[in-house]
Amino acid sequence: MVNPAGERSGASGSGGRRGRASTSQFGAVGLNLVDPRVEASVLGVLDTVEVELRASVASADPFVTEAARHLVEAGGKRFRPLLVALGAQFGDPSGPQVVPAAVVMELTHLATLYHDDVMDEAAVRRGAPSANSRWTNSVAILVGDYLFARAADIAADLGPEAVRLQARTFARLVHGQIAETVGPRAGDDPVAHYLNVIAEKTGSLIATSARFGGMFGGAPVEHVEALAGYGETIGVAFQLSDDLLDIASESVQSGKTPGTDLREGVPTLPVLYARAADDSDASSMRLREILATGPLTDDALHAEALGLLRESPALKRARETVRSYAEDARARLAPLPQGPSRQALESLCDYIADRTS
């Protein structure tokens, strides 16, 4: 499963055991908190989430505890708890259910990573051996199931609406993974199919994270709905921007070696646009010819395709798509009151637009 902000298999993440939350987490996802009170509040939530995550996965069986804490302790950007903490700023961020809601979201996310690594046959996750490579595929799948169960258990303490939303979000995640696995059916638009997969697999959980923040912070209903719409759209925008960075970046800005998706034959947005183009110039025709061969394991072909994509109209079109999602996310914040919390959410839109320009 693909996740935003460089959290795919093989991403370096933060590496090592996590300690206290820090402002470096904000910079990693482009968040700008201009108000020290909001910053202190968000950091306080994230610090407590770290403690509760470890406690929540503990088991009477030491092996289960070790395996379940494997990815918790490997780090990560904690983007979903961050969205919960930010959403809660539009109500009471110190509400007693804000931290448990954030833990539910992160446990659900972590569970998907265990399953993803099995499906992707990944050897590394966040700079550490993946659970499936350290133990076995069966153990990784079962630990993912355990984390889903723990998330549901905590959600039950938040009330029936939380359970319903978490279950529906999980259903969307599974639908998205199935759609990606099956691929577009005959007559489907591959681009529309791809965007739907990202919305289901990535946007859905980020949407629920922002929704939970507003809900359990006690924000007005119209603010909660605005946060949910923003969360889904910004989640899709982040993933699409990672697609572009995989092609356009000369560094490891995306958390991976540039061109990884291209080498593995993953049809991301720039590739889909290039395949669908009807440009008759020599470069576009040559690019379509190379992309039709599937995974580009040949170094020379890979380098040629990467160079052609970087100069292609397809990449420009993909940039425009990312920018449109970022602006859509910003527009969804309109019902929220002006202030530092809204400015923080808007800063994510600016970051996405700038990182792929």
Q: pLDDT average, as an integer?
A: 86
The tally of structural domains comes to: 1
- Uncertain runs: 1-18
What composes the largest sheet? 2 strands, antiparallel
Distance between the termini: 26 Å
Order of helices and strands: HHHHHEEHHHHHHHHHHH
Tell me the quaternary state.
single chain
At CATH level 2, the architecture is Orthogonal Bundle
Shape: globular
- Identify the CATH homologous superfamily: Farnesyl Diphosphate Synthase
Walk across the major sheet and give the strand order: 1-2
Taken as a percent bin, the fraction of beta residues is under 5%
Number of helices: 16
Number of strands: 2
Question: What is the CA-based Rg, rounded?
Answer: 20 Å
Structural class: mainly alpha
State the helical fraction: 55-70%
Looking at CATH, which topology would you report? Farnesyl Diphosphate Synthase
- CATH uppermost class: Mainly Alpha
Overview of the structural elements:
This protein has helices at residues 23-29, 36-56, 62-72, 79-88, 98-120, 131-134, 137-158, 160-182, 190-217, 221-248, 260-264, 269-276, 282-291, 299-310, 313-331, 340-355; strands at residues 124-125, 128-129. By secondary structure, the protein is mainly α. It has a single domain (23-355), classed as Farnesyl Diphosphate Synthase (Orthogonal Bundle), CATH 1.10.600. Strands 1-2 form a two-stranded antiparallel sheet. The longest helix is centred in the middle third of the chain and has 28 residues, at 190-217.
